[in-house]
């Protein structure tokens, strides 16, 4: 989002106000920390700067759901490219690699600075503690993204005071995760309830609980494999469910239309990265629906590069009647401008499948008079209620003893929505429900597919495959489809062909290795 030298000074109208968007004001000039943090307004502005990092192109503006989440769901649809992080063929000097690393540490440093200065402010203590909780959570979240993608990283818990503070050894995974869990659990007691906000841009208790479930599932999987964390994952997901506020939107497609229309539904979409106009035709850094989405040069619809195509194996994952297939994957394309007509795909040639796009976010639903070519106002979801239900079921299934009936029910709730049962009110759910009596292994296999069908292209699939310990073999398995793919799309298998065991982690950026003499490079690089 908007940039400033040290942190963006953005504000909202009030503490728990019902504004349309959290980060909605222009940045002010840089102010030295010694002369800042004097009151609630300045603390809130600094907190907004911590949130600001989420929307950078190197974060959820683009990289974390596109180039850095290439998996068995889709491929990088630029046939001329042979070297890119999205193809798992890059060197440690890759600029995208560095940009994301830098953005994450920028967010951490902003959070550290706020945490070190927040007690100076003349403001109500109750509000101060809410802000402190948000800063603690965001610092922990940025570390979670770092360690999920790079493994062992330096754990910096104080703001940088001097350019010479660069040499720092990477912490152990146990140390990093202990800090993440500690910060998030403290934050859970401090941040506001989800019903305090009319938008999804702020971190609420539900968001913290849900992300804690995600963190603990990761700790239970590769590389830590601490099975005791399944109990914690189930507990935190259960707190979101037991709150009784959240529920599934009856229409799966409406979730993503809401992201384009700035229609907040915090019962389903618990936490989002927000994007909007700055002024005139100038946008923030979001490219949701522009870099991905249904490819078209039709500027009336909204220009989209359609740069993320789908693998046929992902198309085949969906069964007849699952409405998510033709939303996650387009079954139509657009005529040229000024027409807004849709043309349905017909036939079944391989070209038709591999030419389809990751289509969850469609620019035709943007409610705006000016649609930029490269950026959009479409929000990106960081946590949805469906994810919470699936995380609960997975954690419960992996615990000793018999799986609870609730876990099957939670998965089936997600599936019933996918088959239109929640929207239509139909009572026959046999078509949607999982087979009864699945054992632990078959349930886990079914759940792994379910997460991909429900959460496809939301920045989770690569990380899921890694924590399950099946990332490399799953990707290599795609090569079996290559011989049946149209010749025009053979390049779509480059990611699968390039991948090796080292790609479960990204390389530490060259700049970090050069500057930080105590840093250690990841295996294989």
UniProtKB/TrEMBL annotation:
InterPro entries in alphabetical order: SusD-like_N, SusD_RagB_dom, TPR-like_helical_dom_sf
Subcellular location: Cell outer membrane
Record GO cellular component, one term: cell outer membrane
CDD domains: SusD
Coarse class of the protein's main subcellular location: membrane
Family: Belongs to the SusD family.
Protein name (database record): Putative outer membrane starch-binding protein
Organism (species): Sphingobacterium yanglingense
Source taxonomy: Bacteria, Pseudomonadati, Bacteroidota, Sphingobacteriia, Sphingobacteriales
